[in-house]
Structures are given as structure tokens and as C-alpha cells.
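Standup notes, structure subgroup. Blocker cleared on the zinc ion input:
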Amino acid sequence: MNFPFCQKLVKHIFVKTESTDELLKQLQKKAHSINKKYDPRCEFMRWRDSKEGKMWKKKTWISQNRCCAICHQKIVLKGSHIDHIRPIAKYPQLAVEKQNMQVTCSHCNVSKGSQVEN
Ligand SMILES: [Zn+2]
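Run returned:
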């Protein structure tokens, strides 16, 4: 048996495995950031926190007579929610579609969850 050759081979495999693991880690990091960028919920949150999103919410809240679109109770803008009429979970393509959004109280938005309103 060629002992030095085996030793060299094992060392080589070990080094390659380590560098492959490192590359895999980097790829996973990249995949995670790409997924985050294109995740519909993240896309919505970026829009919601943008100047345009904030302006849309205020305008819509005023057009709804400062009421929740579901229970019709008066609500304050701060703490109100943007509800997706057709939920993001089932309609990710409508995540930032304004016609699919309404301003609601937190209770209505949370209790509605991922149900589709008829
Ligand atoms: Zn409500």
C-alpha cells in the first residue's frame, strides 16, 4: 500500500471538502438574499414603508371616511393595517396591487388572516 499517497489523497479530499463547504455557505447566503428580495411579503413591506406606500395608506384611509374597510368603525391612521382583500399567501402576484388593498383596524386584519373575502 502506498501510504504517503493515501495520506496526500486524504489531505486533498479534506481541503476540497472544506472549500466546498465554504462555497456552499456563500451560495446559501446569496440564495437567501435573492429570495428575500423577491419574496412577495417583503416586496409589500418595502412598498408599505416607502413614501408612496405611506401616502397611499393615508389617501385610502381618508377615502374610507377614516373607517375600517371591514367593520366600518372609525380608526386612527397610526396603528391601522393595510389588508390584502385577496391574501398574499394565495395571491402573491397581488402583493403590491393597490386594488387588492384596503385600510382596516388591526383586529379585522388579524382575525381575517389568509381567508378570502367574498
Ligand atoms: Zn375593523
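Discussed briefly. The longest strand covers residues 81-84.
Next: hand off to the docking folks.
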